[in-house]
Amino acid sequence: MSKHHVSTTINGESVEFLCEPQQTLLDVLRDELNLTGSKEGCASGDCGACSVIVDGRLCCSCLMLGAEAEGRRIQTIEGIADGDRLHPVQQKFLEHAALQCGFCTPGLIVAAKALLDENLNPSEEETRYWLAGNLCRCTGYDKVIRAVLDAAAVMRGEAAE
Amino acid sequence: MTFVGTKEDLKVVGTRPIRPDGVDKVTGRATFGADMTMPGMLWGKIKRSPYAHARILSIDPGKALALPGVKAVITRADFPDVPPELAYIGAAPANLRDQSRNCMAKSKALYEGHAVAAVAATSPAIAEEALDLITVEYEVLPHVLEVEEAMAEGAPILHDDVFTAGLDPKPTKPSNVAKRVQFAKGDIDQGFAEAEVVIERRYTTKPVHQAYIEPHACVVSVAADGQCTIWSSSQGQFMVRGYTSRIVGADLANIRAIPAEIGGGFGGKTIVYLEPLAYMLSKKSGRPVKMVMSREEVFRATGPTSGAVIEVRLGARKDGRLTAAEVVLKYQSGAFPGSPVNQGCTCALAMYDVPNALVTGYDVLSNRPKVAAYRAPGAPIASFGVESCLDELARELGLDPLAVRETNAARDGTKAVHGPTWVNIGYLATLEATKASEHLKAPLGPGQGRGIASGYWHNAGGESSAAVHVNEDGTVTVTGGHPDIGGSRASMAMMAAEALGVPYERVRPVVGDTTAIGFSASTGGSRVTFAGGMAVTRAAEKVIDELKRRAAITWDISPEAVEWRDGKAFPAGANAGSFEPLSMVQIAAKAARTGGPISAEVQINAQGQGPGFATHICDVEIDKETGRAKILRYTAIQDVGRAIHPSYVEGQMQGGVAQGIGWALNEEYIYDKEGRLENPGFLDYRVPVASDMPMIETVMVEVPNPRHPFGARGVGEVPIVPPMAAVANAICAATGVRLRDLPMSPPKVLAAIDAREPLRAAAD
After folding, report:
1. What is the pLDDT of residues B43-66, one digit of tens each?
2. What residues of B are in contact with residue A20 (Cβ under 8 Å)?
3. Is B363 touching A (CB cutoff 8 A)?
4. Residue B279 to residues B227, B255, B269, B341, B628: CA-CA distances in angstroms?
5. Which of A23, A138, A146 to mutate to test the interface with B (most CBs of B within 10 A)?
6. pLDDT tens, residue by residue, A62-99
7. Would you call A137 and B30 a contact, using CB atoms and an 8 Å cutoff?
8. What is the ipTM of this complex?
9. C-alpha–C-alpha distance, residues B23 and B501, integer Å
């Protein structure tokens, strides 16, 4: 079967790639484009380690085909920081020690960024439900939630960077 | 050697700097097992048994090999036969023959998902397609899953060469009971005769998976001359090298094992599954081979920990003082011997001063995946029984469960049932901190309940290596031998910085591969900050001796006349002469003229790890319509010795609690009648998500460990020991219903409440 030619935008850059019809966006990111920051934890949309933002909407890249990326704007963990300036969510993850092994961290950061893009003042409960699709087995979520709420306060201008 | 002093003397230890590998991990740059690629690399996949128990009659790879893109197929015939000797390489001793046969089945498939063949192809899709083209002929055999059924007369026998060890005389018939262990103290009959109240209860737990989010992954390259490089995610690069070499029959010196970042392990990555297979596929195809498990494979063929039956009989006086305790533990080992029942036995009563006790454990085979270590292996299972039963005893006597624990708590000088006499233990300190906690005093609402439970884990020491290098510009590189699974690089750098008297930011730690640093045992047993930290500190001390010697050469005085403080060499007193202090930067700059590079590497076998004790408080509320238990508030109180990086110590406590809550409320392996796992995915195997959890409060009690230079104890494992009983005790307090079978999932809780309130159930 011939490969699909796909033109898309990833982290602000125009990208073209060829993919097999059955390859997921996650497969393409990791195996064709060498963007290995998005992780595969389940390949069934249950763990959120592969979270990306597609046209402003949070989604699991393992549940989307590579061919479906045509004409979209995709943001991955590699595009969350602004050059060498970390996004407040990334900075607060470091300060709060909100990661242990770090494997679920890219997905959690992408998901948290998508939350704060939509709502700069989430409650603890809203944050917990928003992140309920991102499994973390190391932290028990405590420091993750604190980091996201603190990042929100920074972005509202209410807390120090 | 000690740097403990008073806490105020410490400049780095006890602070909360940003971890050195942090930025890579929040930007997606960190390289985990599946992130590695090599030119010309093939993709390996495994064909697995669809049957729980079956004789393998034949394997025909012919059609698979004919598929374009397929480069190699391997079966058991490609592996050497390994003698059944015990090897101490990972967290627990493993039988090499069993480990080899777990990686690739020999004459029988012993569980659904047991590997029977593997293929390497030019793409994952071709490899997957090739699996269906390998023809395997099976003779399906009767299987057995449950622990007591496997122990019963007439049960299907997994191995005809396993006879129950620990019995006298030695049995003449093979059995699924691989081992019986026993620990005794005092006179158990006398103890129960003295009791004014005796309660006897039976508890059960289901197998639960470590459920690290990163599936097992590796890339292995075997060259034509036999030299091999392994990149893989594991809890020990030396463990990977050691087991792979023995299973494939290669020399250690020909294998370089490079540790990738590891995406969680919790004990489940202290053994190998993929590396020996990728080795054989690479050897056969002449190309590097990458293998990555699917989540389904992780559930069907790796981990979990044992399901178990726990029988507890406690005898006590009316004031709550225990006179006798008898515990029987029956643990599933899976398809090969080696459950953590021994540790279950030693941990069961370790917290208490019981005058008369008998603990018996059975290691029981069944047609399930071979169990792997899981955070404090064996202890949470035993403690669920004992800590629940102690709560039942306290209720029976009308006593406060915390007071009953205080009455019976092990203290310094207490002789534990399993042998050791305790010194410098912090169990009572955790109970005192529990009593003093805000949480315990907080009022409860209607329908809410509070439970407490305690836990013990022995922690581990053992073999560690570390090197400290002073670079030419006076910065410092620390090389360790332990994969960093939860922030240990930060702790290593902090201890080196503290010992050397230099800022944390000037010390950069790395995890060395098997050619870069001396042998180091795996990351497991809560041993890295203790043993690895001890090695790093000793290496730093040797470097200080060398720095003093270089200053002495520069000043032309005796090295004994030099002292090192705050990262500088000073003349020790007026008699030594008058010299301006020399900083590390100045000494490093002149190193070539004073004797060459300044480095030290240290190898130790660390002893004196110091046990860990914890007490937890849990508040729950039950939804009487659905049976769902909601955790309202949770506090973990733990003796941590001394927290090197308090944030990561808290993180260990919180993570252990969350895993324990999952074990308590939701997680379980569910099998169908044919012995096939029905829930091999995160949708149906339900680990806690963010919306299930409250914030987890932590209280770090510090009873410094005198055997560690900074007073550290292992902290990672004991926090998973108390939660199951803490939750069960809280549910009982909230509802009056005692649940003795895990998980306490909504249907079970609802059924228990309905059984107690039949009128309400009928009205519904």
Report:
1. 999 999 999 999 999 999 999 999
2. 125
3. no
4. 11, 10, 18, 33, 47
5. A138
6. 999 999 999 999 999 999 999 999 999 999 999 999 99
7. no
8. 0.98
9. 25
